[in-house]
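From the thread on structure requests for the teaching lab: each student submitted one protein with a one-line request. Submission from student K.M.:

"Model Transcriptional regulator from Embleya hyalina, tokens only."
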Amino acid sequence: MLTREEDVDAHALRRQGWSISAIARHLGRDRKTIRAYLNGEQVVGVRRRAPDAFVPFLDYARQRLADDPHLWASTLFDELVELGYEGAYPTLTRALRRHRVRPHCEPCKVSNGRDVAVIAHPPGEEIQFDWLELPDPPEQWGVGEHAHLLVGALAHSSRWRAVIAESEDFPHLVQALDRVVRKLGGTGRRWRFDRMATVCHPATGRVLPAFAAVAKYYGVGVDICPARRGNRKGVVEKANHSAAQRWCRTVPDGLTVEQAQSGIDKLAVRMDERRRRVAGALTTVGELADVESLLELPGLPFPAELEAERTVSPQGLVSFEGNLYSVPPGLPGARVIVLHRLGEDHLHIVTTGRVVVARHHRAPRGSGRVVRDSGHVIALERAVLDSFTDRAPCRTKVRRPLTQAALDEAERLRSRAAGTSSAERVVIDLTAYAAVADRLRTAPQPKEETGE
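Reply posted by the TA:
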């Protein structure tokens, strides 16, 4: 690249009749560089822009943001990387602004500023928990209009993990809490919640006796956020935002719960690469979390009893946590309840009237195993074989003309189609009238009364 002084000298020497080679030797530059500046192909102070690596992905980005104008740029970046984009995230955001890819949204431009205070959290002190309701989950999840995701975040390092739950009742909350803290590698000394009805009395904020037993079991204290102070647990709220925008927003149809759980786990691990600056030193979320001193966890979860309502399949199987369990024959389509006490190796399947119909060894979650009881297999085979018959099959290649009853019914239909039904036709038999008339003519006349 020529300086401004060299550019002036090159143009002056060219007007004086110097050749490009002579000018290049005089200035100590390459001939192609001199030629480019003299021909106007390059301008002093303007660098030649490298080919834009974003251009091949421009149409895809426009289509994604046209379909979802509020899609996060980080989510789009994850998708483009899988499609072969080699640029960095800041390069992508600059390209989005330069090409004006994101549609304008007027309501999003309006924001109300407010004061924000930064709360210091000592390492290993606090874990913040919150339920995240995700609308319109895949139908095969069987969770209704909303999926339930329990998110737990270390307040100091902001490392978070999340677990998909079937509902937000007390047993599912305990199960999800145990799974989250085990994914985090331990528990903080205190747990922070908003005013969940399964944790405390929403009006007073006092911890419920049932959840107090859970806190004692794990050896932690419980903190309840003040009413209408959701920012008090801002770390987990930000994790909720990331889970909703970078994972749930792009969950495809046809995904099982186990596959979706694998996706949220991968996102949480990837979020550990976020950079942080602590005391002037550059680090990451994962490095901060690794040095937090967390409490050890009990060997087994808190023994809460989990209930899950299921429908028996035609094969006599009941699905639970990514596995299938057998029941006796004769129950296809029936509603049953799976009972499992957390920490135990067995589960029970009962009817809605609480009659136990099966007991199985619990398979590992999401292993896709089919657990069958040998007695159920034998009984099912016997029931199927008993339904078979050794009678000769019906003969189909025979002549069977219309019967008289069918012909009469067809005639009735034809009459109705013609506008005269059997109810409208009145048949009068005159022979009956003739017989009555003959009988009256031959009948003896009554005797006249005579007076004495």
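TA comment: Residues 126-290 form a domain with the Nucleotidyltransferase; domain 5 fold (CATH 3.30.420.10). The chain has four domains: 4-38, 55-105, 126-290, 305-386.
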